Amino acid sequence: MAIKAAILGFGTVGEGVYRTIQSHKKELETLLGKKVEVAAILIQNKQKDRNIEDNVLVTTDYNEIINLSQLDIVVDAIVGKDPAFSYLKKAIERGCHIITANKEMFAHHGKALLALAKEHSVSVGFEATVAGGIPIIQTLRQLLKVNRVQQIQGIVNGTSNFILTEMREKKQSFPEALKLAQEKGFAEADPTNDVEGFDAFYKLMILSRVAFGAEPDWNKVERVGITSITSELIEVANKLDFRFKHVVSIHKDGDRLIGSVRPVLVGNSHPFFHVEGVENAVNVYSDIVGRITLQGPGAGMFPTASAVIEDLVYAGNRNQQDKHLDKPVTDAFPLTNGSLHDFYLLNGVNKRDLSASISITEQVADQTFIVETVHEEILRLIQENSSIRYYPILDGTQTLLNRKKRKTVTV
Predict the structure, then answer these.
(1) What mean pLDDT value characterizes the chain?
(2) Which residue did the predictor score with more confidence, 298 or 355?
(3) Per the CATH hierarchy, to which homologous superfamily does domain 136-299 belong?
(4) What is the 3-state secondary structure (H, E, C) of the chain?
(5) Where does the UniProt annotation place the signal sequence (predicted)?
(6) Domain regions of the chain by residue span
């Protein structure tokens, strides 16, 4: 008997999943010992012409799908918290494995879906919610068996990364780079979710749940978009041998989880330095393996479909159910440098406003400084003057030392 799957939504992701199942029938049958067949597809508009086989139920009514005589796996490829959450709840209650690419829904309701799935002895696949084709969820699941994860950093939004790349390489303004991203289909007509960091924020929460078994307080996570980055700041970064990246970060400090989504600067020794365009990358720091970085396409029809299909194979083999999915990881070890960020680029600040505890490394432009201090001092400074913008420098010590040496060389 074949494994019967339903796909909810037939946009970029949904269609990619359907096409991949069709093109990889033999591989799936070899892995699972059974054929995988798409039994139904949920759509919004029945009048739209689609290339779907006649034996597939194509409907706008979810009840027709959930009431099929055989249904084993439901793939969620729609957007928004609802009705995706209610659809997947019904699928679990029926005894179906579920797979989702919906990060907003899963960030809000993932915990409830995981608990419900445990009650009904089915699996929840969500690899595609975080970084497109990068298998970060499965990697974290493997690491969690022995390694203790302390910190995760990632470029997980291809739209923002594309815009920052275009601004640097083509010397474009933010509006110009955004317009190009929209023309290429990388950014929506309303790009707020991407450029203001909401999309990355949801992905951060999902990563936190997998790595630490918990989430930071949503209201205490710093979320800063990329709209404050100007062409002038891009040029300053270039002169310093740095590049702007929009990075999510989560780490453990004692019993606290500390998360942020914000623009940072990386030097050429950092693994994110060469992550360009719509590429994504995730860096994991754990006690045994140390630091590892996964990089790959963060969006698109087939990279995202790849993540869904890997989850489908996992769900189709009931003997491979993950025993570590809900396992909380409570113990941790200290970061080696004792602080998440030591160096910062400050913009829009006067030298006289800097306290003695903020050490100036270099003035790089008018009202723009590289400083060394602790994060608490930066937050105090921002509270006193909200117009000041700051950008942490990740692993920038060597780059700054090299720059200092070049400046002191005499001929």
Answers:
(1) 88
(2) 355
(3) Dihydrodipicolinate Reductase; domain 2 (3.30.360.10)
(4) CCEEEEEECCCHHHHHHHHHHHHCHHHHHHHHCCCEEEEEEECCCCCCCCCCCCCCEEECCHHHHHCCCCCCEEEECCCCCCCHHHHHHHHHHHCCEEEECCHHHHHHHHHHHHHHHHHCCCCEECHHHCCCCCCHHHHHHHHCCCCCEEEEEEECCHHHHHHHHHHHHCCCCHHHHHHHHHHCCCCCCCCHHHHCCHHHHHHHHHHHHHHHCCCCCHHHCEECCCCCCCHHHHHHHHHCCEEEEEEEEEEEECCEEEEEEEEEEEECCCCCCCCCCCEEEEEEEECCCEEEEEEEECCCHHHHHHHHHHHHHHHHCHHHCCCCCCCCCCCCCCCCCCCCCCEEEEECCCHHHCCCCCEEEEEEECCEEEEECCHHHHHHHHHHCCCCEEEEEECCHHHHHHHHHHHHCCC
(5) none
(6) 3-125, 136-299, 343-408
